Write the structure tokens for this entry.
Amino acid sequence: MELRDYLRILHKNWIIILICTLAGVAGGAGVSLLMTPKYEATAELYVSVRSSDGGQAQELNQGTTFARQAVQSYTTVVDKEIVTTRVIEELGLDVTPEQLAEQVTATNELNTVVIAISVVNGDPTLAANIANSVATNFIDVIVNELEKPAGASPSLVKIEPVQSAQIPSSPIAPRVPLNVILGALVGLALGIGIAVLRQVVDTKVRSTHDIAQITDRPVIGTIAFDADAGRRPLIVHEEPKNPKAESYRALRTNLRFMDIENTRHSFVVTSSLPSEGKSTTSANIAIALAEQGAKVVLVDGDLRKPKVATTMGVDGSVGLTDLLSGRAEPKDVLQRWGRGRLYVLPAGRIPPNPSELLGSHTMQQVHDQLLAEHDYVIIDAPPLLLVTDGAVLSELAHGTLLVVASGQTPRSALAGAVAQLEGIGSEVSGIVVTKVPTKGPDSYAYGSYGAYGAYYGTDEAGNPTTEYRKVGTGQMPIISAKRRQKD
């Protein structure tokens, strides 16, 4: 994935990420409010070794070294029962030695002879009293018991308090700002994780990157989502100035110059699954081509669930099946549509054997005859993954346009459709993406949709050389200045 794909994921799921982050903040604050405040009091002790009367520097140095070594062992004695039992008796505490030991901590900084005894308790005064009592009893245990020599000789180890524990004025826990920050970070990480997980488990085609992972065929058109498409499917005819109508014209331009060596073209328009917009795309492409004076025939090749007649508003009682059965000639079933040179060939009556009819030699003859009499033959074919009709028709035409619905078509379905066409040697001329969102993060996944409008590049002398139109994923060269003058 590219950086912009990650940014699109964050943009798309920003509400989830924000909710998780706020929940983390609330959780951190809630935990802080529920926690009992803890106070810490610390007493410090200095450990030394007595030297003999008139001891020399060497003896003092040896004593200091011994003290540094011994102090590491002394810190392990601070929270032992031999000390905590005395503290409990002295202060009259209602805890066990083990419970008191959990509140006591002894530390020693490296290369020092200072022991810091810290006590954490919910009562600041009690914390200070326990720390001072532990320090006093610890001194007595070490000096008068553990390190006391035999006989009446005093211990060579000397431990003196250098800092008594003071009553703390503020608690050390909960740390509200820290808990809130940690909660926010945990919530943010959880939100991002959910966003990435949604992307991983999302099997729908939502960007050109998803398409590029499946096929190297170019995206030659992007059609915006239109909630009113069912009410006004022929947007090119009904609202010619609508940006969606312009996107069909951009697709028309790409089709016109897809193979400029041939003067006549036939395209099968199909999809992997139903309801991806193939019939609407076929109709609008045909109308857009006829707008420029081309002679076009729109053929309904879906002999199972034909839609062209309904979409175009023509009589569908006779059509392709009548030609294939020999009951009619093309002039008898072709219906002129509008004022241009667009003709519609409906499906006719639904036959019991659609695949056999579409794969017959007669169908090949009908296709060739229509192509010989028209500049463009646009065939609306059934979905590829449901029946074989679309694959059969793709073998007749010069190219196949594969319609993909953004946010609806599963990537596995697109892969299956491409594999089916490539398996029989049919050429996928390009991908047409329909239902592209006009708002939100997915609207940027197909490039600069909506930024249509012709402009010209220039050579070194400033003369116009190439017309460009922002289509789909960027600038696509459409037609040279010389050819434009010729047209």
The two ends are 42 Å apart (CA to CA). The CA atoms of residues 355 and 387 lie 8 Å apart. The chain has 19 helices and 15 strands.
